[in-house]
Design brief:
heterodimer; A: mainly alpha; MetI-like fold; 2 domains; 0% strand; B: mainly alpha; 13 helices
Amino acid sequence: MVKHRIGLYLLSFLAMLYLVTPFLWVVLVSFMEEREANQHHWIPRQPTFDNYWPYLAKGSVTDEDKTAGDAVGGFTARQFPRAIINSLINASLVMVMNLFFGSLAAYALARVDFSGKFVLLLFYLGTRSVPGVAIMVPMYLLIRGYGLLDTHLAIILAHTTFTLPFTIWILKGYFQTIPIDLERSARIDGCTRLGALFRVFMPVATPGMIAVGIFAFISSWGEFFFALLLTSSIGSKPVTVLISDFAQELQVDFTLIAAGGVLVVLIPIVLAFIFQRFIIHGIGGAVTG
Amino acid sequence: MSSKLRSDHIQQRANHVFALVMNLPALTLILLLIGYPVIVSLWTSLHRYNLRRPDTFDFVGLMNYVTILTSYDFWHSIGVSFYFTAVSVPLTILIALGIALLFNQEFIGRGVFRALLLIPWAVPGVVNGLMWMGLLGKHGAFDTIISNNIKLFNKLLGTNIDYIGMASPVVALNAAVAAHIWKNVPFACIIFLAALQGIPSEQYRAARIDGASTWKRFLHLTLPWLLHPIMIVAILTTMNSFRVFDLIFALTGGGPGDATYVIAWQTYKEAFGRLNFGGANAYSYLITIITMTLAIVYIRLLYRRGSVQG
């Protein structure tokens, strides 16, 4: 039995190493001077905050006056705070729209008997299997046609559309685990259908809503393809698109890139940690249920 | 009697209206931004349309498809994508399954382990690409480890293997696969963990009383229970592998040469590199057909297994 325990801890430790090491290295390198990073050790001997200063530097963030005085990658770094705000706006609104539209659709699918329900479910599942790259050209032309290129709205619409099918699917599964008697008794007490939905049902469904909400937020925060396609200026560029500039610019110190990576990941990781339980139970449970 | 029938009828009608109204916002958005583009995409794929000559929009039938299906570019990127998928999907499932079985045990600190599990999931694809570029680039942590080991290997066996890191097509492609697996393991793991928690513990107790070994319990109890979730994970990760883009953009840019030209990258280049919108839409359709076919195959397998399982 003791041997079994030791084995368990050993294997869990290995699993954790696999999951954590790559990103841990990035975090450690972000606190090193470039010279030190090239010496192949893991723990910074002289920890420095220097890689983070360019991200907090004051200065213009518009594309026109790119100053020559910047260090390599400095201009991209200077635009970061703005891009993080853009990402926050996008992801928050994508979350809200997912919760609102998604819960309405999922409620009907979970609670009401109607013909065509199966077809509708298949339709939602089918749209999930359409790869983004397969509709990029018409999507781009459509958004351009409405004059929405390079706006927050374009990204919010694109991300909402692509996360909605998953949200509906998960929420439907979650809603079905909630006993129907709850709304029945509310209806008997004189509640309207929508009244029962919002006053009685939603509070009980909160854990599931939190799970899909966080999921939609993190999906939007990390999405790159449509963000790249639909934005061009720092007024609307989210942080994933901005940091991808480092892949195009040559000779950017990796220590600077590492600090940027840490900044991009900070918000989703904190959210994932806080809502860990909801995510694992809500998403996992509904998919397998 | 007839009034009851009528009220049933009214109720049914009310249900229909209610369900439709509730689904309307989601449906409108999806039809507008996915449905409409899918149809336009089909239409455009049948035309000669290049943004360099935006006024030309000639109907050419299936010519774009013929051009693509007889081109080296298409078959090369299909090959790359199939390799990418064929390696990453089984490995993702195996690693995630192993970790889920571990983290499903009860031990002190399990909560912390489960929280750390979400790290790769929270890292955006682009950042993941940049991260592995650093890890495997010059002076990167993994680069150092690999080259030291190869030096040692050469010394011990007298071989002469030259490790050139990401400049090697084989290394670059497999690095992309490794990075993709790392990011996709947590999601698969979440699904497996939830499924494992659903196994009724009485069945385990009964099996233990019957004297079944750990391995037998896994084979006859856990694994059958996990078949359905494994299939779901297989579908989702296959789709993810076939559409991988952000990782390639940040990690390799398709290179070295065309070693990591996955199908999504090839399509993107066709559209926004060559501005050949007609051809790109034909590519798009071929991708959609491939992923849909794979999804259908999986779903059929899923239902066949499901009926056996009961």
